[in-house]
Amino acid sequence: EPEVTQTPSHQVTQMGQEVILRCVPISNHLYFYWYRQILGQKVEFLVSFYNNEISEKSEIFDDQFSVERPDGSNFTLKIRSTKLEDSAMYFCASRLLEGEQYFGPGTRLTVT
Amino acid sequence: GEDVEQSLFLSVREGDSSVINCTYTDSSSTYLYWYKQEPGAGLQLLTYIFSNMDMKQDQRLTVLLNKKDKHLSLRIADTQTGDSAIYFCAESTASGTYKYIFGTGTRLKVLA
Q1: Which of A42, A48, A104 sits opposite B88 (nearest CB)?
Q2: Which residues of B touch A93 (CB under 8 A)?
Q3: Which residues of A touch B47 (CB under 8 A)?
Q4: Residues of B at the A interface, defined by Cβ within 8 angstroms
Q5: What are the tens digits of pLDDT across the range A30-54?
Q6: Residue B28 has what pLDDT?
Q7: What pLDDT, in 10s, does the model give residues B47-75?
């Protein structure tokens, strides 16, 4: 069964460094998402992406964040200059049309 | 606003039924979902209900939807210790991006 994959599973970085979180969505899916879950809190929407552009972003998704689909298979989330409060689990999701999103296993980002 | 509320904790004895409740605010939501999250793990889709349904049953799981009150519940019959986890409800917005709005999560503890 096709699944969404994410790498790495855990990323440790120093404050101020750039990080890129990678996702490979299900191959024929059209809509892509990033969500964030700070430890012990709920899952929050960051951004949605369709037709090679951002279709919606939350207020969390400020200028430090960017997304790309560089090669038709990967979907990346970049944080330009990480802050301590960026420490969280980041989930990628994709969907084909209306309905269920398929979530990846998540990348745990730890900013020290 | 886009708030999805859940009670924080629920404790039940093994073999009893668990009922986890959720209230949402977007009356135009098309799908409502229940996810299970074990410690340090990703999001496991348990079940979902389409907004024109009142009830859906899937083995030990029963979902009830009251659209008038914007209330969703998940009943787990014959609760087992392996059901101990955090349960999130999520609504899929009816806007073009169909992003998910997650609830605050309910931590279910099953006592042997």
Answers
A1: A42
A2: 100
A3: none
A4: 30-31, 33, 41-43, 45, 48, 88, 90, 92, 95-105
A5: 999 999 999 989 999 999 999 999 9
A6: 78
A7: 999 988 999 999 999 999 999 999 999 99
Q: Of A7, A56, A9, A60, which Cα lies nearest the Cα of A33?
A: A56
Task: Give the pair of three-digit tokens for residue A33.
Answer: 């998402």
User: Does pLDDT of A9 surpass 60?
Assistant: yes
Is A56 within 8 Å of B31 when comparing Cβ atoms?
no
CB contact under 8 Å between A56 and B95, yes or no, is yes
Dihedral sign for Cα atoms in the order A67, A68, A72, A73: negative
Nearest to A8 by CA among A24, A21, A25: A21
Residue A29 tokens, joined: 């899916």
Q: Which stretches of A39-86 are DSSP H helices?
A: none
Contact (CB<8Å) A43/B99: no
Confidence of residue B1 (pLDDT cuts 50, 70, 90): low
